[in-house]
Amino acid sequence: MKTRKTLSLVLAIAMSMALLTGCGGSDKSVEGNKESGEKEKLVVANWQSYATDADYGAASFAEQYNCEVEHYFISSIPELLSVLENGGTGKIDVVCINPLYLQQYLNAGVLETIDTSKLENYKNLRKDFCSIDEVKDSSGNIIGVPWVWGTTSLFYNADVITDEITSWSSLWDSKYAGMVTLENEYDAAIRTAAMYADQNPRNPDMDTVEKALVDLKSNVKTYWTSHDDFVKAYTSGEVVIGNVWGSIATELKNEGYNIQYIHPEEGTVGWCDYWCIVKNTEHQDLAMKWIDYCTGEYFQNCMATASSQAYSPVNTVVTDQLSDETRQSLWLYPEAPSNVNLALPLTDEQLTNWTTLWDEVKAAN
Amino acid sequence: MNAKHPRKLVRHLIWPSAVILLAMSLVPLCMLVFFSFADGNVSTLNGIAGYTIDNIVNAVTSATVGRLMLRSFWIAVLVTVICIVIAYPAAWAIAKVVPEKYRSTLIMISIVPAFTSQLLLIYSIMTLMQSNGLIMTPLLKLGILPAGTSILYTNQAVIIVLVYEYLPYMILSLYSCLEKIDVNVIAASHTLGANRFQTFVNVVLPQSFSGLMTGILIVLIPVAGSFVEPNIAGGPYSMMIGSLIDSQFTTAMNMGYGAALSLLFLLIMSLTLAVIKLVMKIADRRIGG
Amino acid sequence: MKKRKKGARGFNSVMIVWLCATLFILLFPIFAIILMSFNTSKYGALPFEFTLKWYKQLFQSADLLSATGYSLWFSILVSTSAAVLGIMASMALRRMSRKWNKAFPTLMNVPVIIPWLVQAVALLLLFNLLGIGKSFASLYFGCLVAVMPHSFLITYSRIMTMDKYPEEAGRTLGATSMRIFLDITLPMVFPAVLSGWLMSFVLCFNCFSIQYYLAPFGTYTLPMLIYTMIRAGYNPDINAIATILTIVIAIVIFIMNKIGFDVGQLVGQGHKEK
Fold first, then answer.
1. Could you state, in order of their start, the residue ranges of all structural domains in chain B?
2. How far, in Å, are B3, C85, C91 from residue B8 at the CA level?
3. What is the CA radius of gyration of chain A?
4. Domain tally, chain A
5. Partners of residue C269 in chain B, C-beta under 8 Å
6. What residues contact A150, with CB distance under 8 A and at least 6 apart?
7. What is the DSSP letter of B94?
């Protein structure tokens, strides 16, 4: 008898939980039902909270073109490739990738070439970003369109550090032992170390870089892996100097933290993200419209002036019109840094060497 | 209906589990062995580029791998032992000391943390541990710890976070076997003149071996393979083997090496478990005999 | 508790204090999360300023709610399947040879010792070969095989040590096999089954790596959604959802207690039932 009571109770709990979940889940499916069938749906793979999922992004685009936009949130670019290779093609239409991985994607045969003459805004985009070799396939066709860029440069907490910092070498200064943080990412770490050690960041001497990074370990407090990781470490005062994305520095500055973000004299690590169209998409036209929209003045301007997560525009018309204030907050004041070392793709062999080096550094005693 | 017939038919009920087990666990395991010989990455479009023994040779001979394995192993053992030490008395208290009507409530309360996302929990624990946080502030103010001490981003922090995450599982495992122990046997042991310690070693402990084993299984292995916790809560000297394996699959795109490392890791963990089982068996026999 | 020896009381109080301290420490971060869900500062900075804005935000965007809902019902589905499979296999093993009884439980340990990350990658490759790729079926089977052993091993050990006499008696009295199972066997193993169910529910709810690799496009479980959010910075509305979840569980515990539901049976293997 007791067991029967127990049984019914468990069932009741299960049902109430199912009910609870039903409430949460239902609104989404209703939304899906009334829309699907009538409107074309574009699936965009991008990072979460990265401009396109804001109101001025997908929502506004969907309204303007009377379609639906669904996001597929990615958590690492190589992983996205394995998703595309393993059945994602045909489901995802547009993907956001870093040139570091463009060639890998191209070799894997998951990308479509883009006819840039059909893109109205293409002519206004920063030429240096559009023309790198890595966004072209072997016959010179364009496969990626830049839409946002930024730097992973040097930050410091101006409340703690009163000296003027101008060089990466400050990270190695024993004054800052136990206060340094670096992004847990092989590409930025190796290129930063290469600049410090006076090597060519594109093709440094690996032993020198490894030695520099291992030396740095005695100064390092932690390697940060995500936005929240960094924010936690910074706001709790555990780290005061290191490298970080410009957008995070902007956000913290806007929140009232006395964070300084500089482009060191040796150069700075830059990145630029590109839109690519996935092979065999059924929504080719809509995908093109999406890319054009994301490089257009409205979107680019909103992105640069967004209150919480602002990013540097690639549309030069927009950049020229930005107020000094916006430029300052984007760390583009008075001019955008000229010594930006853009992340470029590595050969398979380099990729292995670079990632192995970074793993060795982190594992070192 | 023939009464005997269904009784034989019952045997066939094993097939669903057996098939799932075979298809979802043993087949992937074989694939893993196969992939450790793959040169570079494995993709379903391009297949395997070639075959090599290098992955396995590298995994076994690399000093880095050895160091990481050792660190992971050491941290995992430490976390498991701490979990057992904390969970044993707690589970005992729930099973044998508190009034019966509160047992259910207490056991449910102890697994509440498992319903919160692990990442959230990690961040929350870290907030408490940071130098201006709730735990450190009084310790620093009272001078118990020297000024400027910070526990965050050290191996200790990683261990604390892991203990937090896995403690509920250990309590649950231990509780379910401690609960079965007959109080009368303990009373009898006392009557026969055994002291508390002797009673524990001779009566209670052997009967809790099965729960200990479940607990160890459920704590030791995931902890040894963890990579999120050391990445978030650890410092420059906290990397564990899980991070290296993860990086082969997600950044280095070297699935062959990743598979070889996983295999090595698997082998070491299986051996460890075999040793633990053996020790328990011997202990059980010696106590019993 | 009978009075056994002098000092038993003192020993028991130490145990109780230890238990309270453990639970307090264990729940402390949860309290912190609950507190922060009502705090204005996004970064958990003090002083504390009360706000409900994170709850408002939570109910405005359906993402977190629907992901939580999905995680809950999916975990219920998987753990229930695991429980059913566990009972079936255990019943079958009772009628099978020693060899099977040695081999099968050992095999069941295999998924336990494979790290989830590795298991997930291997399964993704397998499912691609089978042509189902990332889909609900892959997600379901992936999570099922990860939690099944825990459910099975608990049920199995109970069934094997179970008193066979009541069943024999039932059979002598002419009850059908189905009746015996429903009225005698199931009630006897039920506590163990529930215990396994609970364990697999919690494990399934949290098995991020497997969900991450195998979930179909556009489907987000709670751990997956939080993971993608953390890269760009999460808002305390995650704290809000965690608070709501905790409160729901607290209510469930409270109701269970009120009804007098004895979880001594739930997790323990119920010696008093013999």
1. 65-118+157-288
2. 10, 18, 11
3. 23
4. 2
5. 176-177, 179-180
6. A245, A246, A247, A270, A271, A272, A311, A312
7. I
Contacts of C119 (CB under 8 A, 6+ apart): B25, B28, C111, C142, C145, C146, C209, C210
Give the span between the Cα atoms of B154 and A192, in whole angstroms: 24
Q: Where are the alpha helices (DSSP H) in chain A?
A: 2-35, 60-64, 77-83, 99-107, 127-130, 186-196, 206-216, 227-235, 246-254, 284-295, 297-305, 316-321, 324-329, 348-363
Chain C CA closest to residue B170:
C199
Which tokens belong to B260? 């070889």
B250/A contact by beta carbon, under 8 A: yes
Please give the Cα distance from C150 to C108 (Å, whole number). 9
**Closest Cα in chain A, distance from residue B284 (Å):** 34
Q: Are residues A96 and A181 in the same domain?
A: no
Residues 6+ apart with CB under 8 A from C98: none
How far from chain centre, in Å, is Cα B266?
13
Overall pTM > 0.80: yes
Q: Which of A253, A273, A267, A276 is nearest to A94 (CA)?
A: A276
Residue-number span of the structural domain to which C164 is assigned: 62-273
CA distance B154 to chain C (A): 19
C37: in domain: no
Whether B124 and C33 lie within 8 Å, measured CB to CB? yes
CA C88 to chain centroid: 19
Per-residue pLDDT of chain B (289 residues; tens, 9 = 90+): 444 555 677 778 888 888 888 888 888 888 888 888 888 776 655 567 778 888 888 888 888 999 999 999 999 999 999 999 999 999 999 988 888 778 877 888 888 887 777 888 888 888 888 766 677 777 777 777 776 677 889 999 999 999 998 998 898 888 878 877 888 888 888 888 888 788 888 888 888 888 888 889 889 988 998 888 898 899 999 999 988 988 887 777 788 888 899 889 988 988 998 899 898 888 888 776 5
pLDDT at position C81 over 90: yes
Query: Which residues in chain B touch residue C263, judged by CB atoms under 8 angstroms apart?
Result: 103-105, 107-108
A184, two tokens: 């847990």
| DSSP label at residue A322 | -
Same domain, A80 and A161: no
Burial class of C263 by CB neighbour count within 10 A (0 to 12, 13 to 18, 19+): buried
Q: Does C112 map to a domain?
A: yes
Q: Are residues A232 and A116 in the same domain?
A: no
DSSP tag of A343: -
Here the CATH number for the domain that contains residue C128 is 1.10.3720.10
Look at residue C11 and tell me if it is in a domain.
no
Instruction: Indicate whether A18 belongs to any domain.
Output: no
Q: Residue A125, SS3? A: strand
pLDDT of residue B44: 54
Q: Based on the fold, state whether residues A63 and A124 are members of the same structural domain.
A: yes
CB pair distance less than 8 Å for A48 and C218: no
CA gap A37, C40 in Å, rounded: 42
Distance, CA of A101 to CA of B81 (rounded, Å): 43
A121 and A142 belong to one structural domain: yes
Range of the domain at A55: 41-149+272-333
- The dihedrals phi and psi of A281, each to the nearest 5 degrees, come to -70, 145
SS (H, E, C) A46-90: ECCCCCCCCHHHHHHHHHHCCCEEEEEECCCHHHHHHHHHHHHEC
Helix (H, G, I), strand (E, B) or coil at A221: strand
Q: For residue A241, what is the domain's CATH number?
A: 3.40.190.10
State the chains in contact with B (3 or more Cβ–Cβ pairs under 8 Å): A, C
Shared-domain flag, residues A142 and A166: no
Q: What is the CATH number assigned to the segment(s) B65-118+157-288?
A: 1.10.3720.10
Cβ neighbours of residue C180 under 8 Å, at least 6 residues apart?
C167, C170, C171
- One-letter amino acid of A283: H
Interchain pair C19, B273: CB under 8 A: no
